[in-house]
């Protein structure tokens, strides 16, 4: 007789493999450890192959057969999630509320335009909006506190999350015009910035713990949010990187100046829509993703931004004498 494992057995098997022990799996599944062990034993009996090596090891280790079965279990359970998600989207109508997490890397003009049209199109739908930086978007989607996220770097790969690139942004190193670095009339070196205070945002999500991005100075002031960082840089208390969308007007007015610092990585950052595989967006949330895609896919790239700033800094051409 051909083996016919149940979905529950596959879920238990996958949980043991991913958590690394029967006791951890029992906690994750809220079942007794004996039930977890019994389920795995039954699955192995049905398949007629051992899935875990138990002798001589403190923690169960996948056998070669177990490693092969693990990929099949992930695929089968993933297909089940897709089916459940499709049924949910067919069964449910317009959402009562949309919870969205938006990164500070998203241009504020685009965000305001999308939300303004959202209010006009879906007047009966409540909105729960969180705006933050770094890992906050991914953290809120993973925890279920946000149904969709619009954000930057994907800091954690997870099979339960669907990401789709919908645009781009970029960071630039800046300082106030009276800052010592802004007064150096040449490209800056690492030696120039090492002893200057660099303002750095701390990631409250914990997803980037132990990792710093473009932190070059020995002296660091850590702040909780990008808005505070922006204001402190404008006040001349330090230098740092800011999203182009936030400092665009400041560069135009001269309240901030771009620092010519090759050591600072200034590549474009992709912006993604993020959602859980098992929790597909309803009509209102789907419209919001499409609306952000329409606006962010046409944002100016880094070269165009620099060209605009360079043009603004050119001296005015004198009028020809009559």
UniProtKB/TrEMBL annotation:
GO molecular function: DNA-binding transcription factor activity; transcription cis-regulatory region binding
PROSITE patterns xref list: HTH_LYSR (PS50931)
Keywords recorded for this protein, A-Z: DNA-binding, Transcription, Transcription regulation
Listed Pfam families: HTH_1 (PF00126), LysR_substrate (PF03466)
HTH lysR-type domain segment(s): 5-63
Family indicated by similarity: Belongs to the LysR transcriptional regulatory family.
Function: Transcriptional regulator of the ttuABCDE tartrate utilization operon.
PANTHER family: HTH-TYPE TRANSCRIPTIONAL REGULATOR, LYSR FAMILY TRANSCRIPTIONAL REGULATOR
This protein's name: HTH-type transcriptional regulator TtuA
Organism: Rhizobium chutanense
